[in-house]
């Protein structure tokens, strides 16, 4: 996955937080059985060298585990967490296996109705009282 819109759409899917990363999974529903994955690591985690090292580790994990444990026709996103780079690779492997298992057991989220929006209702603009000129 490379488009920002795909990452934002995956954020509305199911999530499985783990100590080293957060796994997001969203079924696309387009009839294509291909599994896609994306990786993101923010600057909060560290400099470019650390972020790239973490992404390389996630790439290896995704290529190893997603073909067997992933959901067909879904987007999988791994978001790196602060302590993820220090974690042992075998521990990350076990955590991703556990996260994919958790995702598989959760029910599929029903599609959201776009007409129902969360948040505060729109405020009506205040009307200023009529004032005489020069006041």
From TrEMBL:
Listed GO MF terms: ribonuclease P activity
Entry's EC annotation: 3.1.26.5
Catalytic reaction equation(s): Endonucleolytic cleavage of RNA, removing 5'-extranucleotides from tRNA precursor
Key words of the record: Endonuclease, Hydrolase, Nuclease, RNA-binding, tRNA processing
Origin: domain of life: Bacteria
EC class: hydrolase
Keyword Hydrolase assigned: yes
Ranges for region Disordered: 102-135
Subunit details: Consists of a catalytic RNA component (M1 or rnpB) and a protein subunit.
NCBIfam families attached to this UniProt entry: rnpA
Stated role: RNaseP catalyzes the removal of the 5'-leader sequence from pre-tRNA to produce the mature 5'-terminus. It can also cleave other RNA substrates such as 4.5S RNA. The protein component plays an auxiliary but essential role in vivo by binding to the 5'-leader sequence and broadening the substrate specificity of the ribozyme.
Record-stated family: Belongs to the RnpA family.
Protein name: Ribonuclease P protein component
